[in-house]
Write a structure and sequence with these properties.
mainly alpha; globular; 17 helices; single chain; Growth Hormone, Chain: A
């Protein structure tokens, strides 16, 4: 086995760990809530802190690798991720856990971009298809593994430490990856790296936090006046971010998000589709484990198995990937409609079954949502980037992934407002049923918006042309 093959195995395993960790925590939420006495807002932060920090640091992480060396930044990322996982496992309060999760997300954003960049440095364009295909396949397996492994570990009280085991497992794996990286992964760099945009990074992070904080904390605090002031401040800071990005473009500098990308109809519409699509998936990720475990009193393992049909549906959808890729815009819209229909069916099934709901009742509607996810995702990137010049392909891909993670974080925050408001302070099983049916309205609307926005995509079915620069989307995080 060649050294570059060994290097890619190490890097892909690290990316697999990140994808698995994004799902494994969902199943542990009810156990975390009971053990730490976490509030509804703290549960939301436990999920959103990770994806928020991943989103805002991702582009900067990629540029740091280009400048300082991809192995160097990857090592910092995997070391930090391992230490943050250890910190999460020993957290004594919900606040400590949220801080550890945010650090995990930040370090994952340093680590993950180096995987794709190193693959592009080690393999020629004609060789990358198989590597990228493997990485995409492992994305689905990582989601599935996170669901089942997390459910099993919490249910079986692995290592005798309950939910903490879902974070402890990262520690030995992280140490092993760290050692193997030093041995087999080369330290590649970009010949023409883009400069860092520190002001842009700070404005994007600050504006997003100002937006999400009142969404997550508003219910708990009773929506005092200062929450609305924070919304206004978020709008102002994000407006400053846009102005700063435009100024950097005029000066010929390297903005965090090139605003010229949004002058392209395909990219602008595709970004809306991406954002709305992941708002839908983020909202689902928060509600389902709480409903299954606290509302239906099922085990964490059963909760993981309940989400299994989504992954199975995505594998079924993959069989249609070739047709989806050739269909372009219509298939993106169809995918959004299928997702919306699947979740509407899922909410109806819960409402109709009442106290007699079985987990098999949810299998078909959730399987349908997995099919829709693939039908939308497969053609979206190529159609959205069709009109983007080759020189902007890397920036466009990074921005697209940022929208994905921003959608995830926003979905968690928005549905939390609805779900926990309906749930109330001392919920019964009936309250949980009403809360998830009402909250799923947010999910359905998000996918309907994604389908509608897809109609604004250009009428092209040809793959995007990016010259010699390959663009590969991050594996989907359901």
């Amino acid at each position: 086995m060649s050294k570059r093959t060994l290097a890619m195995i190490v890097l892909v395993v690290a990316q697999f760990m990140d994808l698995m960790d994004a799902m494994i925590t969902n199943v542990a939420l009810p156990s975390i809530q009971r053990d730490l006495g976490a509030s509804a807002a703290e549960l939301e932060w436990t999920l959103s802190a990770y994806v928020l920090m991943f989103a805002v640091v991702l582009v900067t992480g990629g540029r740091l690798g280009d400048i300082a060396g991809r192995r160097t930044v990857f090592l910092v990322g995997i070391a930090g991720f391992t230490l943050a996982s250890l910190g999460a496992s020993v957290s004594q309060t919900a606040t400590e856990l949220v801080l550890a999760r945010g650090l995990q997300g930040l370090c994952a954003a340093l680590m993950v971009p180096q995987v794709l960049s190193t693959a592009q440095a080690l393999y020629g364009p004609e060789e990358r298809g198989g590597i990228f295909g493997l990485m995409s396949a492992l994305g689905g397996i990582g989601v599935l593994t996170g669901q089942l492994l997390g459910g099993w570990m919490v249910s079986s009280d692995a290592f005798g430490i309950g939910w903490r085991s879902v974070f402890v497992i990262n520690v030995p794996v992280g140490v092993l990856i760290l050692l193997l990286t030093l041995m087999v992964v080369p330290n590649t760099r970009s010949e023409h790296p883009l400069s860092l945009d520190v002001p842009g990074f700070l404005l994007a992070t600050g504006g997003t936090l100002l937006l999400l904080y009142p969404l997550i904390e508003g219910n708990t605090a009773g929506w005092p006046t200062y929450m609305w002031v924070l919304f206004a401040a978020a709008a102002a800071v994000l407006a400053l971010f846009v102005l700063s990005q435009r100024r950097k473009e005029r000066l010929g500098d390297s903005p965090l998000v090139p605003m010229r990308l949004f002058s392209d109809r395909g990219f602008a519409a595709g970004s809306v589709v991406q954002l709305a699509n992941y708002i839908g998936w983020g909202s689902f990720a928060l509600m389902i484990p709480l409903y299954i475990q606290d509302g239906l009193h099922e085990s964490p393992l059963r909760a993981g198995l309940t989400m299994l049909p989504v992954t199975v549906g995505s594998f079924v959808g993959t069989a249609l990937a070739g047709v989806a890729a050739r269909s372009g815009r219509p298939m993106v819209a169809i995918g959004g409609v299928v997702e919306a229909a699947g979740f509407a069916w899922y909410a109806y099934a819960i409402h109709q079954a009442g106290e007699h709901l079985t987990l098999w009742t949810l299998a078909l509607p959730l399987g349908l949502t997995g099919v829709g996810m693939i039908l939308l995702a497969v053609p979206l990137m190529s159609v959205s980037l069709h009109g983007v010049p080759g020189g902007d392909a890397g920036a466009a891909s990074g921005t697209f992934t940022m929208f994905q993670q921003m959608g995830n974080a926003s979905g968690i925050a928005v549905v939390g407002v609805v779900f926990f408001h309906v749930l109330g302070a001392h919920p019964t099983s009936t309250d949980y049923r009403h809360a998830i049916v009402t909250g799923t309205t947010v999910t359905v609307v998000a996918f309907a918006v994604a389908a509608a926005a897809a109609l604004a995509l250009p009428r092209t079915t040809a793959p995007a042309h990016h010259g010699e620069q390959e663009v590969t989307p991050e594996p989907a995080r359901a």
